[in-house]
Amino acid sequence: MSFQDSPLVQGAEPPHTFVLMKRIHYHTILFFVTLLYSCSEHSNSAINEVFIEGKEVKIDTANMYMGPKVLCADVLYAWNMDFHGGKLSNGKWQKADRLLASGSGHDEFGYMIMTISNDRVLHVLNRSWTGSKYLSLVKIPHGDSIPAVKDKTKWERFDLKQMPLFSPNSKNFIVLSDSTILIAGTPYNDIKHIFSIIDFKNQAVSTLDYWPADEMKCDDRKKNKLFTENSYILENKKGKYLYMNSYVRNAFIFTFDGTATKVISRLYSDSFGEKRSTEVLACCADENRIYALLRDSDGMGTKLEEWKNPFIFGNTIEVFDWDGVKKQVIHLDKYGQNIMLSEDNNTLYLISDYSEDTSEPFIYSYDLDDM
């Protein structure tokens, strides 16, 4: 029987095996269409957008024009030539006490960088005013207690004057152990790296094996400075770290083992250009999420066309997990320059400490439980 004589061609009833195959094919196609649709729906629902309203935090007049830097439990530390600390509770930032004084005398500091370790110990990196010479690192226990911080007999001091001269470094650092810290910045004689581990008990330094691969048309020293001078490092306390730069939208998650460094995910990859960018970042993080404030406007929400001053605001926050997957977009009802998380990670603070006009600094709190 030829193909043309086949009952399948002539319209006769197909055999049962063909009907069965037809039904299987139909249900298989239906299954995959449904699966693709559900995956699409899941993908879209995974990144939900929310709009939340904040509550204004009353600021004591003595704290006006201080730049909030670090929150330890309910003590907000701020910089205004000296470091001050005041309680942030019940919707008010109470009058801040002067805790760490600038100067060259005993127990005074040059250029200070402060970080809180997981056990609430203040770590203060003391540099020369030029920034290239490390002078000391001071550990101050009970950073959540202003009276305890004032007790200088409890301060633990480590001399760093034998350390090599450093290129500009990040605005903060990560405490790795009771003797080591991680910082973005390297010795002058080792500029083709970005990150360093400093052993402050032994005044030793080792650099991580990472150098950004890009097409920047500048010498290595300038490239090192661009990547380190206005950068921050955050952590999830589980071996993952976030590098972010506040000059451009450039941020990535990385890990390291010894000096070997691995980039897990790039959240933002803007390059440094000849002109300052009007699209920049401010970030905070907890053990599960990274919050990235997208700054690109003035204090009224008007998008900036060109860079004129460092007062760049934003009200949109993109939320990522520590694998670099975007999970949520949060729209705030106010525009600010920086964000912080409460210790329990339930409250997000939006901060404006500088402005291009005469408006006063402000802090707004946002309840993340509402989401």
Secondary-structure blueprint:
Layout: H1 7-10, H2 16-46, E1 48-52, E2 55-59, E3 67-72, E4 75-80, E5 82-89, E6 92-93, E7 97-100, E8 111-116, E9 122-127, E10 134-140, H3 146-150, E11 156-159, E12 174-175, E13 180-184, E14 195-199, E15 204-207, H4 220-228, E16 231-235, E17 241-245, E18 250-257, E19 260-269, E20 280-285, E21 289-295, E22 314-321, E23 326-336, E24 338-341, E25 347-352, E26 362-367
Parallel strand pairs: 1-23, 2-6
Antiparallel strand pairs: 2-26, 3-4, 4-5, 5-6, 5-7, 8-9, 9-10, 10-11, 12-13, 13-14, 14-15, 16-17, 17-18, 18-19, 20-21, 21-22, 22-23, 24-25, 25-26
Main β-sheet description:
9 strands, mixed
Number of helices: 4
Q: What's the overall average pLDDT, rounded?
A: 87
Overall strand count: 26
Element-by-element helix/strand order: HHEEEEEEEEEEHEEEEEHEEEEEEEEEEE
Helix % is 10-25%
Residues in β-strands, percent: 35-45%
Quickly give the structural class.
Answer: mainly beta
Cα-atom radius of gyration: 27 Å
What structural keywords apply?
371 residues; mainly beta; 9-stranded mixed sheet; 4 helices; 41% strand; disordered N terminus
Description:
With about 375 residues, the chain is mainly beta. It has 4 helices and 26 strands. Strands 2, 3, 4, 5, 6, 7, 24, 25 and 26 form a 9-stranded mixed sheet that branches. It is globular and about 50 Å long. The N and C termini lie far apart (about 70 Å).
Summarize the structure.
This protein has four helices and 26 strands. With 371 residues, the protein is mainly beta.
